[in-house]
Amino acid sequence: MTLGLINANPVVQAKKERLVRREDQYRDDGVDPLEIYEYVRDIRDPEHPYTLEQLSVLSEESVTVDDKLDRILIMFTPTIQHCSMANIIGLCLRAKLKECLPLHYKVDIRVSPGSHADEVSVNKQLNDKERVAAALENPNLRQLVDECIYSDEI
Amino acid sequence: MDLMEKNLELVEIQKLEGHTDRVWSVAWNPVSSQADGVSPILASCSGDSTVRIWEQSSLSRSWTCKTVLDETHTRTVRSCAWSPSGQLLATASFDGTTGIWKNYGSEFDCISTLEGHENEVKSVSWNASGSHLATCSRDKSVWIWEVLEGNEYDCAAVLTGHTQDVKMVQWHPTMDVLFSCSYDNTIKVWWSEDDDGEYQCVQTLGESNNGHSSTVWSISFNAAGDKMVTCSDDLTLKIWGTDIARMQSGEDYAPWIHLCTLSGYHDRTIYSAHWSRDDIIVSGAGDNAIRLFVESKHDSVDGPSYNLLLKKNKAHENDVNSVQWSPGEGNRLLASASDDGMVKIWQLATKQ
């Protein structure tokens, strides 16, 4: 089955250099937003052989951390307004972070304001943990998500 | 007895470990938890696809896992409910089926599997007499099943009306009126006027009735059945009431009206709320805390109001998904379930 790609001509940027950061650049007891960004920047887009960073879906500004409340907010920018992959990208972010972060962090994921036609309904679904759990139990979705988050190991 | 005057605290009695994934729901066996000389029994269900049955030893007073119900559901078990007789346990699963288990004391047998929903089953509830049960699903429908002889179950009705995923169903404590709440932000009331099994949606409690502005996760009734509490992703608890005498007289349907909204107490989704026999409302939320509320003594022209009795921070290490008071009289035991994989037993007691 070959359907046309949702966004056949994405704008791709070159992979950014990884800065080597010194240990003392962030608090020991907090989580550095850039550390979280490291976990997610290389997630592969579900449709294209590029990372979410390369497609500008994620950038360093995507992650904000509230250290007092142990909450993390990730805003991502789908490549086009009617991107039907927005939910898959959200699932990939959750699946990846679940592996990397200590249990007690609360993660909220949203599309950047104004970046998607169904912003409210996409945000609602991405933050309904029961829906997320059920989706990640679906073998087909799980396989797609795994391919995106483990792509650098293939 | 004014609870607000007493110096109360929620004491952790025991942490029940065993599940290997988040625990979604807990349910107290209605019979064993009440009768004298019989140990309280609690069921819990999990993302690990199993249900665990916990019992308190009458000798040591400690809780142990009596049995694990596995090999039936192939995916998350989202909720479980005991029949009023305590003889049966229904389990709702993301695998699309509802299991019915018979309680043989130290063993449980899966005697039936209810199929029909198109995708994940989210909740199951028995009516007061145990003659029917209801299930609901992400397929937006609510099913009513009739309990027949010989471990047979018949689909009695498929109720459509919700426009999204239905999160929970709950029968009224004394009457055959069914309530459901949903991702579509509403609560629906289903009633069979002629008692002929033809259920209709007789009321929808939405934003225009002072209803919730986001997903409604849970419904719980007071013992009298004239009030209910609902909780939501909109960070509020809402109290609703009805003219129960009018309803019970059988003349016509008495609508539910909004009485009070408890806002400003929660800053993460509230997943569960439960109304105790002695009128204490407990909530479990996504900030890992358990909160207790009681009605204010001071009468108000605008109707009842509620006060926060106490807040237990870090009740669990992650979201609290389910809270339920034990049905037993006077002991004020509470069970909670969490994303941290634990079930906890608590006691509401006066500070020593």
Descriptive account of the structure:
The complex is a heterodimer of chains A (154) and B (352). Chain A is α+β, with helices and mostly antiparallel strands. Helices cover 33% and strands 10% of the residues of chain A. Chain A is built from five helices and three strands; from the N terminus they run H-E-E-H-E-H-H-H. Chain A has helices at residues 33-40, 86-100, 119-126, 129-137, 139-149, and strands at residues 63-66, 71-76, 106-111. In chain A, helix 2 crosses helix 5. Chain A is globular, with a radius of gyration of 15 Å. The model of chain A is unreliable at 22-27 (pLDDT under 50). Chain B has 352 residues and is mainly beta. Chain B has one helix at 244-248; strands spanning 8-16, 23-28, 41-46, 51-56, 63-69, 77-82, 88-93, 98-103, 108-114, 121-126, 132-137, 142-148, 152-159, 166-171, 177-182, 187-191, 200-205, 216-221, 227-232, 237-241, 257-262, 270-275, 281-285, 290-295, 306-312, 320-325, 333-338, 343-350. In chain B, the strands form seven sheets. In chain B, strands 1-28-27-26 form a four-stranded antiparallel β-sheet, with no helix packed on it. In chain B, strands 2-3-4-5 form a four-stranded antiparallel β-sheet, with no helix packed on it. In chain B, strand 26 and strand 27 form a beta hairpin. Chain B is globular and about 55 Å long. In chain B, 51% of the residues are buried.
Quick summary:
Chain A has helices at residues 33-40, 86-100, 119-126, 129-137, 139-149; strands at 63-66, 71-76, 106-111. By secondary structure, chain A is an alpha+beta fold.
Features:
heterodimer; A: 154 residues; alpha+beta; three-stranded mixed sheet; 5 helices; 3 strands; 10% strand; B: 352 residues; mainly beta; four-stranded antiparallel sheet
